[in-house]
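Below is a filled-in request sheet from our internal design queue. Each sheet records the structural input a requester submitted and the sequence that came back. We keep these sheets so that new team members can see what a complete request looks like end to end.

REQUESTER: design group, bay 2
PRIORITY: normal
MODE: inverse folding
CHAIN LENGTH: 172
BACKBONE (tokenized):
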């Protein structure tokens, strides 16, 4: 029998896997659209259009409380920074190099926090021990293995515990 903690980890892994599959499907559709030349015109129009940001509701504010603010060290020496948005309560500014996005937090049923770009271009998934930033339009990761100090502590804590068998059999 799975412990409550392990059930949450399994659900989180399933959510991340499902999000990856969803984004991969969206990437294939986007590739077909790009071949027709419409993608560049849509991107230019989306970049020029001002974004209307709705006021954050109670669910969004609850999810915002779970977002880890600050610097994330990522694979290949990259860094992601998340700060509270200056003018919109319940929203965040996310930066990777010269790129930046306004992100809306959404809490998933598994406990993972999703930071969704208000323009639909990027998605950051934050789980217990790491985060990843994805390009929703291309259906691929921008950067993976992003770790905040809080996630680093959680990883060390998990590593220090003896592993439980998922089959309910005590290890020898």
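RETURNED SEQUENCE:
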């Amino acid at each position: 029998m799975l412990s409550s903690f392990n059930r949450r980890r399994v659900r989180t892994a399933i959510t991340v896997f499902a999000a990856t599959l969803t984004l991969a499907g969206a990437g294939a559709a986007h590739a077909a659209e790009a071949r027709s030349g419409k993608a560049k015109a849509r991107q230019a129009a989306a970049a020029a259009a001002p974004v209307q940001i709705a006021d954050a509701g109670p669910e969004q504010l609850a999810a915002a409380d779970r977002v880890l603010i600050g610097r994330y060290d990522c694979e290949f020496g990259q860094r992601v920074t998340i700060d509270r948005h200056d003018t919109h309560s319940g929203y965040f500014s996310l930066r990777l190099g010269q790129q930046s996005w306004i992100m809306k937090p959404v809490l998933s049923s598994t406990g993972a926090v999703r930071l969704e770009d208000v323009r639909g271009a990027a998605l950051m998934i934050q789980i217990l021990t790491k985060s990843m930033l994805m390009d929703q339009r291309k259906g691929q990761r921008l950067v993976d293995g992003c770790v905040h100090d809080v996630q680093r502590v959680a990883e060390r804590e998990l590593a220090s515990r003896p592993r439980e068998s998922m089959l309910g059999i005590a290890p020898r």
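SHEET NOTES:
- The two ends are 18 Å apart (CA to CA).
- The chain has a mean pLDDT of 81.
FILED BY: M.R.
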